[in-house]
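Protocol step 4 of 5: obtain the predicted structure for the target chain.
Materials: sequence only (see below). No template structures provided, no constraints applied. The aim of this step is simply to have a reference model before the mutagenesis design in step 5. Sequence pasted as it appears in the construct record:
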Amino acid sequence: QVRLVESGGGLVQPGGSLRLSCAASGFTFSDNWMYWVRQASGKGLEWVSSINTVGARTKYADSVKGRFTISRDNAEDTLYLQMNSLRPEDTAHYCCATSVVPDVAIEEYDYWGQGTQVTVSS
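Step 4 output (structure tokens):
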């Protein structure tokens, strides 16, 4: 049974940092691309970042480029999202996800975690 469990969210002031984690189980983590997606209250899903199986290829939404860093530890079956210079507009529910087919769009993600809330506010 595939399981993705996020942690690390919370309340942070603008300009602050948070590191999200996503613990994976039930599949061969090192075989799958991984993704971070977020959803702000009242808005649709927004793709944030992707990482390939070995962590050598990463992609970012323009809204987070230069501030967020995605990474993975295949020995620990864990995905990370380091978020720096946080802005109020980064406030959202953040989920990790994975797909069997590499590098696909949100609509084709196969498994999702429950997510963790990030709130950026003074």
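Step 4 remarks: The chain has a mean pLDDT of 97. The CA atoms of residues 30 and 53 lie 5 Å apart.
Proceed to step 5.
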